[in-house]
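pls read this stuff:
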Amino acid sequence: MKIAFLSAHFPPDFIGGGEWSTKMIAEGMASLGHEVYVFCGAEKDADEKINGVNVRRVRALRGLWDKPLFEKRKSSIMAKCLKKYLDDGFDIVHAHDFRSALALSMLNLDNSFVTVRDFAPICGTTNNMLSDGKSCDGCSWKNVLLKCHRVKEASLPRKPFRVWQYKYNLDFRDQSYKKIIRHIYISNALKNRVASRMSLPENNIVIPNPVGREWLSNVDVFPMAKNIVYAGTVEQYKGIGVLLKSFAKLRKDVSGVKLTIIGSGHVEKYRKFAESIGVADAVNWTGKLSQDEVRKHFDQSFVVVQPSIWEEPFGRTVIEAYARGRAVVASNIGGLKETFKDGTGVLVKPGSVDELYLALKKIVSDKENAQKMGMLARNYVEQNFTVENIAGKYIDFYNLTHQNHS
């Protein structure tokens, strides 16, 4: 098949895990013998071939990077730009982020697909989260004005513009996603949350994100040091405060335990908090790291922790930790819960300092059991989340739904 992927960004230009998943899936399809093209925004026009994938970086598509007040107008401009590239006999045209999906919907193609990676179909901010980190139950005026985390964090002059942006564009998003009649969701948790506020097309499926081949390379010897590693944004809704409080309790019971926090965000705020509770000397703040550096930290860990309060759409850190043969302690919520495998760690109640403390203590106090959990985790990923496995599921969905529609 000749397949077109649409993505606002494409590695090495990326915002988060979604772009890396798009890259892996494209490369997986190419390895299966399909002709894959990616069209993305860029600072300047460039054509290249990356691991069998034809990548066209288009300066005019930088508009997909914007956060416009009027999404319909911007999407119309992007659709006109895309059209000249998509009139080239593609069997499949597939949007992999919501800005690309909005533009694709305006072309009314009968071979269009979208992967839904966030809450954009039902939420103006894309992450469906209130200021306390909990899930939002809808963009009511009360929620947007008083509880929306993006509105609350904005400066006073920006607040009215954000309120307008989030409320005004929701109807357009709803209509746009309904016009693309084939949806792929990265978790059942995400699909069910979207379905609670928007009718889904008949042709929808859940296909998880893959884990990169480099994550499944040979794993180093299990470390002696009792290192706990967190990787992600350093924010309240990610449970950083809960993690630090739990770690403070753990230090009193387990000698030599260390905590590494990888990521950017409100680092100084939480560094000061760590000092106030007496754990600053045992916490390593690395800032944002490359994938290779994150992988090295995972290899040096006893356990990887994901204590989110927020309903994450997918548990990428969970499957990456599994791929390195490490046990995981994660919040029992959303995509984290769904990617978790029994026997590979512990699920805890979101926001519970005591449960997180006990789970971490259980794992760092028993090296042999931690190693067994890690071996089971690695095997689980190898069987379910490889690039080839996930790319094959995409191709199967293309064949099933597009041929039936034709």
Observations:
- The chain has a mean pLDDT of 94.
- The chain has two domains: 2-124+169-210+386-405, 213-384.
- The first strand starts at residue 2 and ends at 7.
- Residues 180 and 314 are 22 Å apart (CA to CA).
